Amino acid sequence: MNKRVVILIALALVFLLYLPVLGNGFLTDDYAALYRILVEKRILYRDMLRPMIDISFYFNYLISGLHPLGYYIFNFLVHAANCYLVYLVASRIVLFEDRRQRYFAVLSGLAFAIYPFHNEPVVWLSGRLSSLAAVAGLWAIYLSLSHKGSRYWIGPALLWITGLFAYESIIGLPMIILVLRYSDRRRFLREASVWVGIAVVWALIHYGLAGSMLPDYGRNSLAKQDGGGLWTQSLKVLGRCFLPPLDRPDWMTKAFAGVGVVVLAVNIVLWLRKPARAFAVAYGKLAVAFLTALAVPALIGVSTRTSEGDRLLYFPSVFLCILGAAALLQLTRRRMVWWAVSGFFGIAGVLLIEANNSHWVTASGTATAIIDSTRGGGPVVLVNLPDEWEGAYIFRNNVEQSMVINGIDTAGVVVNNKVMRPEYLKMRFFEDSKRGDSTFISPVTTIVRKGDVIEVHNAGTGMRRILPYVGTRIYYWDKSRVKKIAL
């Protein structure tokens, strides 16, 4: 298939699949990036050496200002570029000696486009750090497989370091390149020594600028791995590569076991068919690349209850999609079967992507309503500020930064309490009930009028705030919309 046609298909698929989120606004860490570049006049380099997120946001700001549409289009274009790069990488991995090789490359790119468990980098603006890193990683792999000379590493090395300035999800890229290029032991050791040197250079740059090798959340996550924790977390991450999140641990355990049996059975049948040596070697290399790419999410972890953390699956899913395409084309030569299986997974992928899109649309609408409620001056109290909605971040942090970016006086805004997912799952809706001069807003807020003032009490923290009765506005999130309390 012509490369231009593949590019057009990738663009069309991405824009059609993610069209519902084009009207979304900024969320949580998006405001942190905007605050750094517009107010603090700096980029992210201390503790987390990820300047690419701020550089890309500044690029968007120069083009579209504070209108989020341009930022989302940028995310879409990056994702479409990755779909095309998956196609290019697959075309360089020779598994078949007939026309299946061409179908294999196209199917790999299409599978990546409709893979439903990595779309956080597409629908969340700050999640682009993962897709930007993947662009660098995939380009580096493509160059490595395209050039067999001893100096092939110069371009990939620069791309690797650039990608790490976006996100650490591609930290295992040198090992992946070494595995995919492996032909003999001597050459492997020679090239490995070069990559070790490059890694030392990157480590010195990272430590010198950031002052540490791991961000706070990374250190905290690794510190939690005691006993069988890391093993359990690795299995969960592996399972999430194949299954959507579900808030039923018992069902998820059974589903993980079922997927494990299916994957094992597919691979047993695959090897019983005695594939050609070229296929067996390339397939084995891809399996090692997939497991290597899973090391980062296995150490940090992803949620099995919501889509939170799916950005960590973005780079590993590249190799999973290529492996899936290879297995399908090897198991049968019938085009009808290819299209039937591809169609089944395609429909499932589209449905799951759209379900996740709806969560981000809800999250964006809620965030916009909360910000709009704080406009107009006067003391404003926000009750039940939502942390996220089914994995879609709303105001996990950076509330003050969001107000500054939107030109709101932060001194007049009070956040009484935040609600996390375990809290909002307990109730169908948060409700308000009034008795005399007292109003209770579930789950923890009581508002009492005392003459010319009102007292806002948070039963969870014990904090009491005294505010003037005249001019104070109180809003709360009831799980469906932001409502104003009549004092």
Structure description:
- By secondary structure, this protein is an alpha/beta fold.
- It has two domains: 3-331, no CATH class; 362-484, no CATH class.
- It has 19 helices and 13 strands.
- It has helices at residues 3-17, 29-40, 51-64, 68-92, 100-114, 120-123, 128-146, 154-164, 173-181, 185-210, 216-223, 229-240, 249-272, 277-293, 295-300, 314-331, 335-373, 399-405, 421-425, and strands spanning 380-383, 385-386, 388-389, 392-393, 413-415, 418-419, 432-435, 438-441, 445-450, 453-458, 464-468, 473-477, 482-484.
- The strands form four sheets. It has a five-stranded antiparallel sheet, with no helix packed on it.
- β10 (453-458) and β11 form a beta hairpin.
- It is elongated, with a radius of gyration of 25 Å.
- The termini are far apart.
What's the SSE blueprint?
Elements (H helix, E strand, L loop, with lengths): L2 H15 L11 H12 L10 H14 L3 H25 L7 H15 L5 H4 L4 H19 L7 H11 L8 H9 L3 H26 L5 H8 L5 H12 L8 H24 L4 H17 L1 H6 L13 H18 L3 H39 L6 E4 L1 E2 L1 E2 L2 E2 L5 H7 L7 E3 L2 E2 L1 H5 L6 E4 L2 E4 L3 E6 L2 E6 L5 E5 L4 E5 L4 E3 L3
Parallel strand pairs: 1-5, 1-12, 2-6
Antiparallel strand pairs: 3-4, 7-8, 8-9, 9-10, 10-11, 12-13
Helix pairs in contact: 1-4, 1-5, 2-3, 2-18, 3-4, 4-5, 4-7, 5-16, 7-8, 7-9, 9-10, 9-14, 12-13, 14-16
Summary?
Helices cover 59% and strands 10% of the residues.
Radius of gyration (CA) equals 25 Å
**Major sheet:** 5 strands, antiparallel
Tell me the distance between the termini. Answer: 66 Å
Please state how the strands of the largest beta sheet are arranged side by side: 7-8-9-10-11
The structural domain count equals 2
